């Protein structure tokens, strides 16, 4: 299989080809590893670094979920300091939360708190098809809710960026006519456009953009949470520590 040229990854329209290659190979395949090394050596990991790595991570997690045996479910692990889910299942869960929000969550509620409980319960039930959710554990479910909230904000942010890119601030009717392809349906898109076109919303968004421009954003070194980074580092350290021999047993004298 021919590896795409450097220019392939710099093209704005090349992501479907790139992702198709990665999805076909699998992110842990030798050829995909070689592709990663080639991109690194040729300096392609520039402005597209985060996007391509994030897509590789998502495709790997999606493949794992799609290959689950019938009836099997993934268990989630909370960090010891209860700052979030950790381990490989945390990435898989974040991926599934994003898919669930995009496919099932209506967008006519403009704060996460205003999303009705019956809608949130429906989202929990969708997740329960692949994950063991401890519905009776309050702390556990708070973290499930927080992960869904984060993916809800991210999904709306992506849709909003697409609207702005197509002239939402200067020509809202044109932007409204160009629904983002992965938006759930036209009704959701219309609700969002109605909200973004409000003068109150526009002023609020402009203020938030100005505030974000003043912030110093600390890098987490990827899409993992700090807790998940700590979990993997500790696990890696333990795997390299020498194993102590079992204590010698002595036979009591007769």
Question: How is this structure best summarized?
Answer:
With 254 residues, this protein is mainly α. Helix content is 60%, strand content 3%. The chain has two domains: 6-66, no CATH class; 74-208, no CATH class.
Plain-language structure description:
By secondary structure, the protein is mainly alpha-helical. The chain has two domains: 6-66, no CATH class; 74-208, no CATH class. It has helices at residues 6-10, 15-25, 30-41, 49-66, 88-104, 117-128, 138-165, 172-177, 186-197, 199-214, 226-240, and strands spanning 74-75, 77-78, 85-86, 131-132. It has a two-stranded parallel ribbon. The chain has a two-stranded antiparallel sheet with strand order 2-3. A hairpin with a 6-residue loop joins strand 2 and strand 3 (85-86). The N and C termini lie far apart (72 Å). Residues 1-27 and 56-61 have low confidence and may be disordered.
Number of strands: 4
Report the sheet with the most strands, covering strand number, pairing sense and barrel closure. 2 strands, parallel
State the helix count.
11
Quaternary structure type = single chain
**Average pLDDT:** 77
- Beta-strand residue percentage: under 5%
Low-confidence stretches: 1-27, 56-61
Rg over CA atoms:
23 Å
């Amino acid at each position: 299989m021919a590896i795409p040229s450097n220019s392939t990854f710099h093209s704005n329209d090349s992501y479907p080809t790139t992702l198709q290659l990665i999805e076909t190979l699998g992110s842990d395949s030798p050829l995909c590893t070689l592709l990663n090394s080639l991109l690194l050596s040729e300096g392609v990991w520039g402005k597209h670094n985060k996007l391509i790595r994030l897509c590789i991570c998502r495709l790997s997690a999606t493949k794992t979920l799609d290959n689950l045996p019938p009836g099997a479910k993934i268990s989630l692990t909370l960090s010891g300091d209860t700052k979030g889910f950790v381990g490989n299942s945390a990435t898989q869960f974040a991926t599934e939360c994003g898919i669930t929000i995009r496919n099932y969550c209506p967008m006519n509620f403009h704060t996460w708190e205003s999303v009705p409980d019956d809608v949130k319960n429906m989202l929990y039930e969708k997740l329960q098809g692949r994950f063991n959710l401890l519905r009776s554990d309050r702390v556990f479910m708070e973290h499930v809710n927080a992960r869904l909230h984060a993916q809800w904000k991210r999904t709306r942010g992506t849709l909003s960026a697409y609207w702005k890119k197509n002239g939402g601030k200067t020509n809202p009717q044109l932007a409204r006519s160009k629904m983002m392809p992965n938006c759930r349906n036209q009704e959701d898109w219309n609700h969002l456009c109605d909200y973004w076109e409000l003068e109150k919303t526009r002023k609020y968004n402009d203020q938030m953009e100005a505030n974000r421009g003043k912030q110093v954003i600390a890098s987490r070194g990827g899409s993992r949470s700090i807790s998940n980074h700590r979990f993997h580092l500790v696990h890696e350290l333990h795997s390299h520590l020498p194993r102590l021999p079992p204590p010698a047993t002595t036979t009591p004298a007769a």
